[in-house]
Write a structure and sequence with these properties.
- The protein has helices at about 20-30, 95-105, 145-150, 155-165, 175-185, 215-220, 235-250, and strands at about 1-10, 35-40, 50-55, 55-65, 65, 80, 110, 140-145, 190-200, 200-205, 210-215, 225-230, 255, 265-270, 275-280, 280-285, 290-305, 310-325, 325-335, 340-345, 350.
- The chain is an alpha+beta fold and about 350 residues long.
- The chain has a 19-stranded mixed beta sheet that branches. A two-stranded antiparallel ribbon has the order 10-11.
């Protein structure tokens, strides 16, 4: 399988970002990601999707959309839409109908920043996902880098510090989001987790301080979604787009925080008597299943079953666990970075039925 690094959920001047699509492509080349998915608010922007080239490197830019009801106050229930063949913002008022329309348009969708707290010091209101009665969405944005920033800036002084030292922000997905994801999958649902940067390249002014908060290039070096494809990219935009969205929909991906150390090369798989599985797949428990995780660097590895840690390995590069118990199994990995234990890898589950 081919692994590609995707940075998704970002904004340009077409909504509330400060940069252009060209700025995003330039930053992505510098950061070394393979694919970016631009998701401006309530507008499906045409004309920018395709391969970009720089010397001997190629970048695929895909265009999605972040849809929410602009008439709602506060404007909660944001939905990331990928691969739809038409504009869908007109359906934003009813989240379930919007999700249904995404499917009708041939797309996939993810609940954006399920927990997005207020930041009073900067007059930022809470815009979490609220309608948990919805069904048939593809997954959730487990780690949103910009939402996490709002959790660490109780004062403007904190904001000024992180503006100049953004590398100290990232710790892990918001714990309540992880808890909610485990609840959803424990109920028998397949819910794919992705990681989004929510990059805006915000142009901030605070007194005499003028600073671009989280430039695109910095964002692209942090929270990424690493996706395993059934076959290599072909260079054909439509074929490759379908291949990528098919893999995301299947959950053949993991969330990697690539700033402490590159996460490329992580694998989580299962081997049964007559079948095998990777992240996002199901496998029968009968006759036992061997779960294996391999990391690109040594780290703390935690095996999670149905939301509970069942085994931990310290400073390891691989681990193995044999089970006959059905459940939802996933991996978390942690590394120390800038003096703190930080979440590094969050796999999608393997579902042992």
């Amino acid at each position: 399988m081919q692994e590609i690094i995707i940075n998704l959920h970002m904004h340009t001047r077409y909504s509330d970002g400060s940069g252009t699509h060209k700025d995003i492509a330039t930053a992505a080349f510098k950061a070394g990601v393979d694919v970016v998915i631009v998701t401006d608010h309530n507008i499906l922007v045409y004309g920018f999707e395709g391969y970009y080239k720089e010397k001997n490197k190629k970048l695929l830019m895909l265009i999605g959309e972040e849809v929410h009801d602009q008439a709602r106050n506060p404007q909660k229930n944001h939905l990331l839409v990928f691969g739809a063949n038409r504009e869908l913002a007109t359906f934003a008022e009813n989240p379930q109908n919007l999700i249904n329309q995404v499917a009708h348009a041939g797309g996939i969708c993810f609940l954006a920043h399920p927990d997005d707290p207020e930041a009073k010091a900067f007059r930022e209101i809470e815009i979490s996902w609220e309608d948990w009665s919805v069904q048939n969405y593809t997954g959730i944005e487990l780690w949103n880098a910009l939402s996490e920033l709002k959790t660490v800036v109780p004062t403007k002084l904190h904001g000024a510090f992180y503006a100049f030292f953004p590398q100290f922000v990232g710790h892990q997905p918001i714990p309540n989001t992880i808890k909610k994801w485990d609840e959803l999958t424990a109920n028998g649902n397949k819910v794919v987790a992705i990681g989004g940067s929510d990059a805006h390249a915000l142009d901030m002014h605070m007194g005499f301080i003028h600073k671009i908060i989280f430039p695109y290039e910095f964002h692209f070096r942090t929270v990424n979604t690493h996706t395993l494809l059934d076959s290599p990219l072909t260079g054909d935009v439509n074929l490759d787009k379908n291949l990528i969205y098919k893999s995301l929909a299947a959950g053949h991906c993991f969330v990697g925080y690539d700033l402490p150390a590159p996460t490329k090369g992580f694998r989580f798989s299962a081997q049964g008597k007559d079948s095998s599985a990777i992240m996002g797949d199901e496998i029968p428990a009968k006759n036992g299943v061997t779960l294996q995780a391999k990391l690109p660097f040594h780290a703390e590895i935690v095996l999670i079953k149905d939301g509970q840690a069942i085994q931990t390995w310290k400073n390891q590069i691989a681990c193995t666990h044999i089970t006959t118990e059905p459940g939802v199994y996933r991996i978390e990995a942690y590394k120390n970075y800038l003096g703190k234990r930080r979440g590094w890898i969050y796999s999608n589950p393997i579902y042992i039925r």
